[in-house]
Design brief:
The protein has 269 residues and is of the alpha/beta class. It has a single domain (3-265), classed as Rossmann fold, CATH 3.40.50.150. The protein has helices at residues 11-35, 53-62, 75-88, 124-134, 158-173, 184-190, 213-220, 222-227, 233-248, and strands at residues 43-47, 67-72, 93-97, 109-115, 135-147, 153-154, 194-201, 204-205, 253-255, 258-265. The strands form 2 sheets. It has a 7-stranded mixed beta sheet with strand order 3-2-1-4-5-10-7, with helices on both faces. A 3-stranded antiparallel beta sheet has the order 6-9-8, with no helix packed on it. Strand 4 (109-115), helix 4 (124-134) and strand 5 (135-147) form a beta-alpha-beta unit.
Length: 269
């Protein structure tokens, strides 16, 4: 995996999007991890950490007797996340530039976690196998990822439908699968992960930050769309204007993608 393989543009603007997404997802992810047993003293791996928001949250949960290691392939994103860590004064959190296929930890963590990572990878099974290897026997592997076509809006809107189609196309052209979600439980089993469980959530909004996630994501895939010649610049400007207008409507409802949350255990005691 490299920076050219990721459909959503990164850097400081990319981190702003990730911060917004993390704010929307925070209560759901925090509850999931704590319900699965994450607590004080645990060692936690955040694989594909993006802006570092989950890593920062996990560091608060595990406390100074625990530790958090967070990796991402994007050096600029890691630098920005490291600045956040320093400002927060968190010493038991380490950010590292590394991609999901380079994960070389062995029997080190109580939890290995990834959010919205696998759907961008060409070889999801390999990434899961490395996550499994990274946790101790009895450790947990936890993934949150999308079934993108499960996105919905009300009322029906052609600009929203075009957004869904464009996102899925640019992810697929770079080797990913925007509809990976339902396949993840079976991928866990193929990776040798046991006691597999899952649930599905789908936050939706008629106002506020969450309602704008689709529009912001569409903005962030602009270069990928134009590079693939799926639209020209004029068509792009028309689409983004239409989607902004729809999102601004008081009567419109826009969901996040359908999100599969999958967990399991490394059981080779």
């Amino acid at each position: 995996m490299n920076t050219q393989g990721y459909a959503i543009s990164g850097g400081s603007e990319g981190k702003s999007r990730l911060n917004l997404l993390a704010s929307v997802m925070q209560p759901y992810t925090e509850a999931l991890l704590q319900n699965l047993g994450l607590g004080s003293g645990a060692n936690f791996l955040d694989n594909g950490c993006g802006g570092g928001n989950v890593a920062m949250m996990a560091a608060q949960i595990v406390g100074e007797t625990g530790s958090v290691t967070a990796i991402d392939f994007d050096p600029e994103i890691i630098s920005l996340a490291e600045n956040d860590r320093k400002q927060a004064g968190i010493e038991h959190l380490s950010f590292q530039v590394k991609n999901a296929y380079e994960l070389d930890f062995e029997s080190q963590f109580d939890f290995a976690y990834a959010r919205f990572l696998l759907s961008h990878l060409k070889n999801q099974l390999q990434a899961l196998q490395r996550m499994r290897k990274a946790v101790k026997p009895g450790g947990k592997i936890v993934v949150e990822d999308v079934h993108f076509s499960g996105h919905f809006c009300y009322p029906a809107n052609s600009s929203f439908d075009q957004y869904l189609n464009l996102y899925s196309q640019v992810v697929a052209r770079r080797g990913g699968n925007a509809d990976l979600g339902p396949q993840i439980p079976e991928l866990f089993r193929q990776a040798g992960i046991e006691d597999v469980g899952f649930d599905v959530i789908q936050p939706c909004f008629d106002k506020g930050e969450g309602k704008w996630m689709g529009y912001i994501t569409l903005m962030r895939i602009r270069e990928a769309v134009l590079e693939a010649r799926l639209l020209d610049v004029k068509q792009w400007e028309t689409l983004i204007g239409q989607f902004e207008k729809f999102t601004s409507r008081n009567d419109s409802i826009i969901s996040l993608p359908r999100i599969f949350r999958v967990w399991g255990t490394r059981s080779d005691f």
